[in-house]
Amino acid sequence: MKKKMRSVICVILSLMLLLTACGGSKSEEKSKKDASKGDTPTIRVGVSWHEMQSVNVTVWGEYMKKFGEEKGPEYGVNFEWIEVVGDATPVQEASNIQDLINQQVDIMVVWCNNAETIGESIQKAQDAGSKVVTLDHQDAGKIADAHVGQDTLDQSIVASEALADILEKDGVKDAKAIELFGSLGDPNSVNRSEGWKQVEEERKLWTTVTTVPTEWKTENFKSGLSNALAANPDAEVLYIASDFAFSAVQSALEEAGRWKKRGEEGHMYICTQDVLPQAYEAFVAGYIDSGVPFDNIAHAEKVVEVVADLYLGNPVEKENWVKSPAVTADNIETEASVWARDYLDYE
């Protein structure tokens, strides 16, 4: 009797487990349907920002959502954006990406802190079934499914050529130049320096007498430039790897008596990269002579297109580079890629 009772109980338990499994499957299907609007599939996009202090992140984020809404119908998809923010350390970044893996996002967009260390996290995401798009900072091993970024070599060449044209127009020759360099660990810094050197060699209008490493620290922009000006008081040209710290540059020039507009005696000819809000007003006022925007809006549009194509299985370029035109006093207030004019409150 006891043996028969055990058999009955086993059968009942087996039926209960089977019903639970079927119910779970239906629940998962319902969850997937709920994630889409009607019959339109929804791409769950996990975005990992290594920090949120930069206005670049604000512009990228706002325009990715904007272009997602605009281009969704074109691709026949909806976009759901799931953002995680780090503290500018690789450890937190790895933890955040693991969080996105746990959430089973379809595609990841990663603005990484360190191009050398991000590869392990990218591989984990891919092993879990997510496609990965790197933004701005490309992983050293180039294992991400796609990359979107500014062509920073072209950026520096275009800006430097524009400055060379201005120097020729003003009759400046054999000028001494100071270069404010970014960081050796940042490929964008290296590209920008190489572009500057290339135009220097080709146009032969200036000679860089000192290169100041800043490691992208605001205080180094000021102290480095102050020391360089003290050692080279007759320098006439300044090349800046990025103008996010332009207030520090301005301070150093003011203290050295070199904060002069073009056409004024003692003017320091300035070629800059990015044309961020911190430098926009000085550019308009005539203190900065040439530059090329870091076109976050174009980056955001390309990210949306790449994400949609990856999800749909369409062909995607491994590297997607954005190029921007030169900006001078003639077009600083009208050039479409200069988004800084709309974000001056973020200085």
From TrEMBL:
Primary subcellular site in the record, as a coarse category: other
Pfam family, one: Peripla_BP_4
A single MF term (Gene Ontology): carbohydrate binding
Record keywords, A-Z: Signal
Listed InterPro entries: Bact_Solute-Bind_Prot2, Peripla_BP_I, SBP_2_dom
Gene3D superfamilies xrefs: 3.40.50.2300
Signal peptide from the UniProt entry: 1-21
SUPFAM superfamilies: Periplasmic binding protein-like I
Sequence ranges assigned to domain Periplasmic binding protein in this UniProt record: 60-313
Record's subcellular location: Cell envelope
Cellular component terms per the entry's GO annotation: outer membrane-bounded periplasmic space
Name of protein: Sugar ABC transporter substrate-binding protein
